[in-house]
Amino acid sequence: MKLTILGSGSPEAYARRASSGYLLEVGEDVILFDCGGGVFDNLLRSGRKPSDITHLFFTHYHSDHMMDYARLVHAAWDEGAAPLKVFGPKPLTDITEAYFGRNGALNNDLRARTELPQSQQVWVARGGTLPRPWPAPEVTEIDPGYTYEGNGWRLSSARANHAQPILECLGFAVEAGGRKFVYSGDTGINPDITELCQDADFLLHWCYRGSGEVLHPALMPFSPDPGEVADMAEKAGVQRLFLSHFRIHMDNEEEHAKARANLAERFTGEAGIVKDLQTFEI
């Protein structure tokens, strides 16, 4: 498996880090986890096309995890790609319909591109055939505990505690070739995600709070700091641990040094902080 970091930031607008998006290549499949703002551009910067994505899994629908969804689907459709397989909690069907339905936000664009003679001829000149269908991603709404069998890989999921009851939130694990990758999603430390992390070869875990930082009491249970993530990963038998979702005020050498010190003190495996367009072999 090969992991590419397409977005390692937060909802804050920030040139150094796009919002959440992580690309996992397993055999012939190219799996995207979340698709926040800036992820689409980093996909192109990584040398890939929208049509390369075969599967998209959403952890939840905060904007920084799904803002580039419509852009990805539209661009892949415009390349003539097969419908994208998209998975996520409810209301994924409603969200997709709100973008691409006959009365959706993009209906004027799609009518123009599929009905106007000049647009039809552009499509035909690029090798397309008429009538041109609208984008139709293959949507599957999923719950915690959902599993999926891919071509040589298996995905499993668990509930992340983050924004319930308004948003259901998930973390994901992918196993292939005797290796296990886990993406925590946005979550506090909880038994379901801890179980998902058991014996992972590589854990990518969100970190919204700096080392020792005190947030509002409403946030603290949902925002483990680097040391708390390290403690969980160590107990779960994780081999490699990397933190993501860094906020602007945490993204400086002083805060990085604190985080790295916490990781080194409390986790025995390889550990660090990811950055956009970084790649890892798992």
Fold and architecture overview:
The chain is of the alpha/beta class. The chain has a single domain (2-281), classed as Ribonuclease Z/Hydroxyacylglutathione hydrolase-like (Metallo-beta-lactamase, Chain A). It is built from 9 helices and 14 strands. A 7-stranded mixed beta sheet has the order 6-5-4-3-2-1-14. Strands 7-8-9-10-11-12-13 form a 7-stranded mixed beta sheet. The longest helix has 14 residues, at 253-266. It is elongated and about 65 Å long. 44% of the residues are buried.
The fraction of residues in strands falls at: 15-25%
Total helical elements: 9
Terminal Cα span: 5 Å
**CATH hierarchy: architecture:** 4-Layer Sandwich
Task: Kindly state the percentage of residues in helix.
Answer: 25-40%
Features:
Metallo-beta-lactamase, Chain A; seven-stranded mixed sheet
Summarize the structure.
With about 280 residues, the chain is an alpha/beta fold.
Write the layout of secondary structure elements.
Blueprint: E1 2-7, E2 21-26, E3 29-33, H1 39-45, E4 55-57, H2 63-66, H3 69-78, E5 85-88, H4 92-100, H5 107-115, H6 117-125, E6 138-141, E7 147-149, E8 154-159, E9 170-176, E10 179-183, H7 191-196, E11 202-206, H8 226-235, E12 240-244, H9 253-266, E13 270-273, E14 279-281
Parallel strand pairs: 3-4, 4-5, 5-6, 10-11, 11-12, 12-13
Antiparallel strand pairs: 1-2, 1-14, 2-3, 7-8, 8-9, 9-10
Helix pairs in contact: 5-6, 8-9
